[in-house]
Amino acid sequence: MNSLGEVINFIQERLLRKFFMVITVLALLNCFVSAGTEIIAHQGASGDAPENTLGAIELAWKQGADGVKINVRLTKDNVIVVFHDPDTKRIGKTDKEVKNQTYAELLLLDVGKWKGKKWKGERIPRLQDVINAIPDNKKIIVEVNPGSDKIISLIRKVLERTYAKPEMIAFESPNYKFCAKLKKTFPKYRVYLSLGGHPTFRANPKAIIKKLKAANLNGVDINYTVVNKLLVDGLHKQNMKVIAHTVNDPWLMRLLKDVGTHAIVTDHPGLMKKYP
User: Fold this and answer.
1) Closest alpha carbon to 130 in 57, 30, 222
2) What b/e string do you get for 12-50 counting C-beta neighbours within 10 Å, with b at 16 or more?
3) How far apart are CA 276 and CA 271, in angstroms?
4) Environment class of residue 230 by beta-carbon count within 10 Å: exposed (0-12), middle (13-18) or buried (19+)?
5) What is the Cβ-side half-sphere exposure of residue 116, based on CA atoms within 13 angstroms?
6) How far is CA 5 from CA 10, 11, 256, in A?
7) Are 227 and 261 in contact (CB under 8 A)?
8) Is the dihedral angle over the CA atoms 154, 156, 161, 164 positive or is it negative?
């Protein structure tokens, strides 16, 4: 180097290289953290298809969802069906309580046409149908309404008839005692406590974590408004997961990913998968 100008240029080049190296490393680390957050389709790709139907679930897989969250209920003849509401008024346009109908009677209902002509003819599936169709490396979360031990014994029979591995199926319920029963009955399966925006989580998260540990539960499914880094870190230290619902805004998803949220439940898995 024969001049002061050459020395300055050399120093500037070295500084720029280091700057871009740091930016690249930070970007890679950020992608690594984001990659750990799963996208769970709420009742299938329910933003585009009729909720809790095979059509919605198949669409969720096509859109790249890591998992699907479904709801189940018990029919009059003890068949576990995938359905959210206690009655068929909103979806089936007939006011029938699911628990008072046989599965054959429920199959007569078209639960797709309310979402558009494209979905006409969709029927209420059984839990067995959904489990049997889980693709490799995918998973489902089954939300079970609190009830008698009968549904637990029927779930056991469904699991005995499937080749799906335990890591492909998880359960959750808003009732702590029922969750404890599920975990005791199915120790190899993950069980989450569904809390919504429970005020106790805001006031005293340590009390909830203590209850989760007592029942050997695997984490919580909570409303995204309750999620913060302190809470996520506290649960992660106990090897527990945080699932946040229901998130349909990419910017909000980004914030939840940045604090380490394990999974995000969304009506639009295809949209969320487009944003790293």
Assistant:
1) 57
2) eeeeeeeeeeeeeeeeeeeeeeeeebbbbbbbbbbbbbb
3) 11
4) exposed
5) 9
6) 9, 10, 48
7) yes
8) positive
- Residue reference for tokens 């003819």: 121
| Angle, in degrees to the nearest 10, between helices 176-185 and 149-160 | 30
Q: What is the 3-state secondary structure (H, E, C) of the chain?
A: CCCHHHHHHHHHHHHHHHHHHHHHHHHHHHHHHHHCCEEEEECCCCCCCCCCCHHHHHHHHHCCCCEEEEEEEECCCCCEEECCCCECHHHHCCCCEHHHCCHHHHCCCCCCHHHCHHHCCCCCCEHHHHHHCCCCCCEEEEEECCCCHHHHHHHHHHHHCCCCCHHHEEEEECCHHHHHHHHHHCCCCEEEEEEECCHHHHHCHHHHHHHHHHCCCCEEEEEHHHCCHHHHHHHHHCCCEEEEECCCCHHHHHHHHHCCCCEEEECCHHHHHCCC
What one-letter code names the amino acid at 47? G
Pairing of strands 169-173, 139-144: parallel
Q: What is the pLDDT along the chain (276 residues), one digit of tens a residue?
A: 556 555 455 555 655 555 444 444 444 444 443 458 999 999 999 999 999 999 999 999 999 999 999 999 999 999 999 999 999 999 998 999 999 999 999 999 999 999 999 999 999 999 999 999 999 999 999 999 887 789 999 999 999 999 999 999 999 999 999 999 999 999 999 999 998 876 666 667 788 899 999 999 999 999 999 898 888 999 999 999 999 999 999 999 999 999 999 999 999 999 999 987
